[in-house]
Amino acid sequence: MNCELNAKIDLNGEKIRFMLKGETSMLLTELQKKVENSFGVECGFLLKYQDDEGDFITIATESDLEMAMKLNPEILRLVVDPKQVQVQQEEEKEQEEQQNKCIPTKGVKSANFLMKNHKMVMINLNSEKMDLLGLSNISDDQLTEKLKKWTLKELITVGLVTKEHALELCQQNGVKPPRCCFHESSSSPSSLLLFKKKKDHGSFRISDKKKNHNKKKSHHHHHHHQQQQQ
To answer: What is the rounded CA–CA span in Å between residue 30 and residue 76?
Structure first.
């Protein structure tokens, strides 16, 4: 349905008056474009009018505009309020940031993890690494219990947790970050194998493997030294 809009718009004391003709469904869009072009206001502002009770009403939809035109058949006086939109956009951005903190990104699973200070936090684990370690098909409670046996450093070493995420958790909870957060490291196949052994035997740690290796190396050196003496 075609209609005609006679409007006067005020932005901080600067006023313009114009007429718009066209389809009712497109009138609000045309009105917003007129405001943008006339005042140089970027998209993201509120249009308000004063109703018969003296209240300022926001025009957000086509039906709001139709109601405003019915209450003001001769001329529709509108006020542009860019500040309100700025506040509204900031609130929406804050809400979105809060939601992003709670919702893990793609390829990540959240789980409970006990920090060194005995505080339980939510930690983001790499889903692909979880599949390799056989952790994807267990319950959340079982996963929490298994994670209690592992240190944050070990989770980083096998690629279950990123160094950036680990550092963020430590800073938020007042815990000293592992040294591996500050230098390059990679989750090699051998480290995954060691981690699987630890998962299977419960008490096995990557450091145990290093100790065993050092013992063998020391024993070999001692045996070689005896042969030279003989």
So the answer is: 15
In whole numbers, what is the pLDDT of the chain averaged over residues?
77
| Rounded Cα gap, residues 69 and 77, in angstroms | 10
pTM listed for this prediction: 0.39
Rounded CA separation 195/4 (Å): 73
DSSP 64-120: HHHHHHHH-SS-EEEEEEHHHHHHHHHHHHHHHHHHHHHSPPTTEEEEEEE-TTS-E
Residues 181, 163: contact at Cβ < 8 Å?
Answer: yes
Largest CA distance in the chain: 116
> Could you read off the pLDDT of 192-211 as tens digits, one per residue?
544 454 445 444 344 444 44
Beta-ladder partners of 20: 5
What is the spatial distance between Cα 162 and Cα 26, in angstroms, rounded to a whole number? Answer: 49
The b/e string for 145-167 (b: 16+ C-beta within 10 A; e otherwise) is: ebbeebebbbbbbbbbbbbebbb
d(CA 20, CA 32): 11
Contact 154, 206 (CB under 8 A): yes
